[in-house]
């Protein structure tokens, strides 16, 4: 992820972004949960959320699969604490177990689940093929692994409008960084899943394209997202690009907090794969 630019501790800052992202993608995710249910070979009663973050997948899946229990796995104790607080607020504490584990180091020893879920987490792995192979035994024979991965970060300002070119340039720089820092981002995860011994049952895009009037969560996500990206690329934007970019956040006429043309355009890739029975 890009480096932090706002005056927040990173876990708190990232947690807020993940929660806002969950709100923006909520409707699209309902379709994903329905796809999983349609492919499942029986009731989904046990779930492992791998790289759970603030629990977007955990709580969405528990809402859809009413008899399920989830194990939420993450390397960040701060994220898991946030997830436990949310579970308590939602009355779901009895259906969620948290487990602190770094998937780069080792795959946790858990009972084999009906469904493993990995959303925007696999591209962070140092050796995703090794980890995927190790994850297969955590899924029961006939069970499913669902992978959702980023194509890139959301866009907020339409092309051809004030700040649009500057945002596009920042994303171009960020994509180059990710190609170096996170080479697995944008992978053909279908091929990786097949190599791990799974059978890919579905692959499709999951898109969000919100236009005016956007919900308040979209404006907050735009502010945090643009500030976060700025911190990663500020020293490489030309002076004119930086002025145009900063105008998106400085409270003026082009600020995304009140622009009528603000949009949220984002795409994820979805794979649903089965462990052979």
TrEMBL record:
InterPro entries: Methyltransf_25, SAM-dependent_MTases_sf. Residues 47-143 form the Methyltransferase domain. Gene3D superfamilies: Vaccinia Virus protein VP39. GO terms for molecular function: methyltransferase activity. Keywords: Methyltransferase, Transferase. One of its GO terms (biological process) is methylation. SUPFAM superfamilies: S-adenosyl-L-methionine-dependent methyltransferases. PANTHER family: TRANS-ACONITATE 2-METHYLTRANSFERASE (PTHR43861:SF1), TRANS-ACONITATE 2-METHYLTRANSFERASE-RELATED (PTHR43861). This is Class I SAM-dependent methyltransferase. It comes from Aeromicrobium fastidiosum.
């Amino acid at each position: 992820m890009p480096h932090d630019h706002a005056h927040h501790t990173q876990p708190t800052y990232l947690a807020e972004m993940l929660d806002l992202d969950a709100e923006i993608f909520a409707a699209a995710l309902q379709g994903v949960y329905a796809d999983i249910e349609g492919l499942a070979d029986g009731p989904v009663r046990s779930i492992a959320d791998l790289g759970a973050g603030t629990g977007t997948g955990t709580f969405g899946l528990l809402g859809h699969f009413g008899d399920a229990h989830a194990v939420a796995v993450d390397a960040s104790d701060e994220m898991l604490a946030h997830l436990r607080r949310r579970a308590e607020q939602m009355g779901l504490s009895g259906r969620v177990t948290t487990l602190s584990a770094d998937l780069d180091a080792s795959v946790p020893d858990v009972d084999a689940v009906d469904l493993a879920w990995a959303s925007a987490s696999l591209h962070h792995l140092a050796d995703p093929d090794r980890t995927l192979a190790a994850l297969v035994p955590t899924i029961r024979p006939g069970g499913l692994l669902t992978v959702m991965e980023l194509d890139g970060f959301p866009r907020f300002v339409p092309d051809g409008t004030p700040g649009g070119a500057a945002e596009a340039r920042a994303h171009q720089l960020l994509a180059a960084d990710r190609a170096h820092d996170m080479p697995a981002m944008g992978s053909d995860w279908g091929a990786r899943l097949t190599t791990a011994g799974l059978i890919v049952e579905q692959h499709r895009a999951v898109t969000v394209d919100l236009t005016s009037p956007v919900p308040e969560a979209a404006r907050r996500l735009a502010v945090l997202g643009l500030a976060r990206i700025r911190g990663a690329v500020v020293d490489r934007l030309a002076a004119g690009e930086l002025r145009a970019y900063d105008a998106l956040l400085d409270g003026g006429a082009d600020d995304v907090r009140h622009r009528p043309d603000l949009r949220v355009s984002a795409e994820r890739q979805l794979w649903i794969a089965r462990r052979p029975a």
